[in-house]
Write a structure and sequence with these properties.
Layout: H1 2-32, H2 41-47, H3 50-75, H4 84-100, H5 105-117, H6 121-149, H7 151-160, H8 165-171, H9 175-195, H10 201-216, H11 224-243, H12 257-270, H13 281-292, H14 297-338
Helix pairs in contact: 3-4, 3-11, 3-14, 4-5, 4-14, 5-6, 6-7, 6-10, 6-12, 12-13, 13-14
């Protein structure tokens, strides 16, 4: 009975983990589009400049390909040399996996390398931690650039979304914040010493060590200049993937570079909320910025809806392709070994 109870508890937990992001995303989407006239979308689709949207999808594919190639640079110091096709397809699959369960994509990438290339799961996961740190730095630099040039737009954005930055800053000046911080650190230290008494502590240490080695792998990358250039290329592709669709619609074609940059930054922070491909929060952030730049609310909602839907469809197609391609690679490898 106890074993069944534990299994039931795990099943309920996993179900909640899968459903909660979907519920949150659906709730926000319903709220954002509560008064939207969906019948008008057909007319917009017929009048769009599709060449710009298709070009943005090509750029999106290149961003995934470059990310897969760049990943190899941080794996090489770990004596891990995955095939380029495998690492790229792993990236394709990871983005599709995030649609099913946000943040699980990184785990799926590592699982692919472990299955098809025999690379340590924990070490490859460590390289993704360093990758996320680099991505976070890129977002920070892009945000600072946009803030410096268009600070007045961000002030208006925060005002429209009901964000009071003055109250947010006051949190760090309160005694309560530091009391909670110290208590939290104390709790982590206590849990650390308690964990050392567990029988599987050595296994935990081994996994943690492998992850740490993976995180530090970027320091030993032989082609650091190439890594930096590929990182820049990835984020240029990300921005172009968002910016090029502006020219697909008459109501956004004249907004210009900085309007797209402000919306891009707002959308980048909105996808922190764990919903499938940022659905809901991303729409709200982008719509708000476009309205600030004078776009009609309905047109802004149409832009966000169509661009996100088409790019999400691309993610699904690439994920399916990645799975099929890996299956074919595995089949060919098995046939070769039999010969």
């Amino acid at each position: 009975m106890k074993i069944k109870s534990i299994k039931l508890h795990k099943l309920v937990k996993k179900s909640l983990e899968a459903l909660l992001p979907l519920v949150v995303g659906t709730f926000v989407m319903v709220w954002v589009y509560r008064d939207f006239d969906f019948s008008s979308v057909k007319g917009v689709l017929l009048g769009m400049h599709w060449e710009w949207l298709l070009l943005s999808l090509v750029v999106a594919v290149f961003s995934h390909i470059i990310r897969g190639i760049r990943w190899q640079l941080t794996l090489h110091p770990l004596n891990a040399y995955p095939r380029t096709s495998v690492s790229i397809n792993a990236v394709f699959i990871s983005y599709a996996a995030n649609l099913l369960l946000p943040r699980v994509g990184e785990l799926s990438r590592c699982a692919v390398l472990s299955k098809y290339e025999g690379i340590s799961f924990s070490k490859s996961l460590g390289t993704l931690v360093s990758e996320r740190l680099v991505d976070g730095l890129c977002v920070l630099l892009i945000t600072i650039s946009a803030l410096v040039v268009r600070i007045e737009r961000f002030d208006s954005f925060f005002a429209m979304t009901g964000t009071d930055l003055h109250n947010f800053g006051a949190i760090f000046l309160s005694v309560r914040f530091y009391v909670i911080l110290v208590a939290g650190i104390g709790l982590l230290v206590l849990l650390f010493f308690l964990a050392r008494s567990l029988f599987f502590w050595d296994k935990i240490k081994e996994v943690a060590h492998n992850m740490w080695v993976g995180i530090l792998s970027i320091r030993h990358t032989k082609h650091l200049t190439l890594y930096i250039l590929e990182t820049i290329a990835i984020w240029v592709c990300y921005f172009l993937q968002f910016y090029l669709p502006f020219y697909a619609f008459d109501f956004t074609a004249e907004l210009g570079f900085w309007a797209a940059m402000v919306a891009f930054v707002a959308g980048s922070f909105a996808i922190i909320v764990p919903t499938p491909n940022g659905a809901g929060p991303w729409h709200y952030a982008v719509i708000t910025v476009l309205v600030l730049y004078g776009v009609d609310g309905h047109d802004a909602a149409t832009f966000a809806l169509l661009v996100h839907a088409i790019q999400t469809l691309l993610v699904i197609v690439l994920g399916i392709y990645g799975l099929a391609a890996l299956a074919m690679i595995h089949k060919n490898k098995t046939n070769t070994e039999l010969l």
